[in-house]
Design brief:
247 residues; alpha/beta; Rossmann fold; six-stranded parallel β-sheet; two-stranded antiparallel ribbon; 8 strands; binds adenosine-5'-triphosphate; binds magnesium ion
Length: 247
């Protein structure tokens, strides 16, 4: 199906098609489509734009990723379909590995995601190893790679599940996430929460890292993730129409 570029929901519709294709090629899970739907509902309420609270979080995320000793990018079935290109650019800029870690575990899908990333030019793509475990998690997602998330001080995990975000934090790691829902457990637990659509936020994060690398900017003096979440929730409560609603 060809969607005219002038269609008001062009980006939303093309994004859905990318995910549909991800399911057909065995990268994205059917559940991933439902998770995306939850994200879309919040994006609608946010006016489908990148707000100041997201830009501030992106600047801080760039800072923390550049300062990290062992940053790792965690890839799932949705993010592999939507932003593989940007993930690969990020991993090269930060000289860090990509690690496949999916909620609905399947060895076959893990391999497919790995192959998809390698085909697009990724260098290091790690998979979980049974020897390395994130304490405090019961699901299969507790297994991680010994040179990847197990070793990492900073884990970039967009579109994450709350359980794992909490476990990563408890294991002493900084967690940077992208999540359209400021009320999710992931959003509330993460060290840095970028409340934005991943397809808009990732190119901005890449740009910010390039900018900060050039300027060798020092760490931001003040960053308060709770304030960022509060601003997003306040925007959602007020809505596009202010307190009165549409007339
Ligand atoms: P949690 O487990 O953190 O409480 P949840 O169970 O509501 O969250 P999950 O299905 O575990 O949600 O994770 C999916 C999350 O990803 C949702 O919060 C959803 O809003 C978000 N999401 C989905 N698609 C996108 C997207 N394109 N960009 C940003 N966030 C997205
Ligand atoms: Mg969840």
């Amino acid at each position: 199906m060809k969607i005219p570029k002038t269609h008001p929901r062009y980006i939303s519709l093309t994004t859905r098609h990318v995910l549909e294709h991800g399911v057909k090629t065995g990268i994205t899970s059917l559940n991933g489509l439902i998770a995306h739907g939850r994200g879309e509902a919040f994006d609608y309420l946010l006016g489908e734009k990148t707000h100041t609270f997201a830009k501030e979080a992106i600047a801080e995320a760039a800072n923390v990723l550049l300062a990290a000793k062992h940053p790792v990018i965690s890839v799932n079935g949705n993010t592999a379909a939507l932003v593989a290109k940007e993930f690969i650019i990020l991993s090269k800029l930060l000289r860090c590995p990509l690690e496949v870690n999916i909620f609905h575990t399947s060895k076959k899908r893990e391999q497919k995601i790995k192959k998809h990333l390698l085909n697009k030019g990724a260098k290091d793509v790690f998979l979980a190893e049974k020897k390395y475990v994130i304490d405090g998690l019961l699901s299969n997602r507790r297994y991680v790679n010994g040179k990847g998330i197990y070793l990492a001080d900073v884990v970039f995990v967009p579109l994450e599940d709350g359980d794992r975000a909490e476990a990563l934090i408890k294991n002493g790691k900084k967690v940077i996430t992208i999540d359209l829902n400021p009320l999710s457990r992931t959003a509330k637990t993460a060290t840095i929460t970028i409340i934005d659509n991943i397809v808009r936020a990732l190119p901005l994060l890449v740009g910010e890292i390039i900018k900060q690398k050039k300027s060798k900017k020092l760490a931001l003096q003040k960053y308060d993730n709770k304030q960022i979440l509060k601003q997003a929730v306040a925007f959602l409560r007020k809505g596009k129409y202010g307190s009165g609603g549409p007339s």
